[in-house]
Amino acid sequence: MNLKHCFITITLFIALHTTVSAQVFTNSDLTITKLEDKLWVVETTDKTTMYIIEGSEKALLIDTGTKCEKLDEIVRNITKKPLLVVLTHIHSDHAGNLDAFADIYYHAADTLLLSMLKPYKGNTHFVKDGDIFDLGDEKIEVKHMPAHTPGSIVLIDRAAGNCFSGDAFGSGQVWLQLWPFSTMETYIQSCKKMEQLMDEGISKIYCGHYPYVKKALDIQYIRNMRILAEAIQNGTVKDPKVFPTRIPGIGGPNPMIATDNGIAIVYEPSKIK
Questions:
Q1: Which domains does the chain have, with CATH numbers?
Q2: Model confidence over 51-62: pLDDT tens digits?
Q3: What's the pTM?
Q4: Does residue 155 sit in helix, strand or coil?
Q5: H/E element holding 196?
């Protein structure tokens, strides 16, 4: 192989294996950026987040954001493949455009939360831990990670080393002060489960409010979350403070916030155990 051919080969290898980051669509509601091969992040102007994964046969939309006009048509600017729509959990900032889609997938434990949103007239499908969304050359696995909500899930792309976490572990700050409350032990167990997945090869966590961090989170982030949660559970957390925001209808009456190592947990002190 001569020097010219060697240079071309190296250039092609770099092009195929370098992370892509390029804005491909924008309007008054949102911006879409290509993060990696076959992966796009959708960031809304009010800092909610969706992700699009494209396989050889189907595509997957993770969450439906807040109010975005013609979201279904916008997604078609990115992929023409048959589309599956899966929700990481049922809160209005992650399920705000359900009406744009005829079918949705979510965990049954969040059904009560779905009933609190405006009525959804489409078809609902339940997922459980270990289910696989087969996109052709892409396989996306469901993992149940309750605490933020009872039905919170993350979506795992083992081949790419990616996790799409919704709000299960927050985006720098996780909210555990919302009804129906989970124990701190529930959150600790979810953190441990995520740590194990990362020990097995998942290296990047793409969170549910990407505009706040602008990067994938790593295993140290999850470890710091678990350590802080254990301190709250054990009563050894340092200098917790009153959280200034209460969410009407589903927020605890006395939310507190604990911080350490650059991360934070918001919780209802009467619902720790």
A1: 19-271 (3.60.15.10)
A2: 999 999 999 999
A3: 0.92
A4: strand
A5: helix 184-199
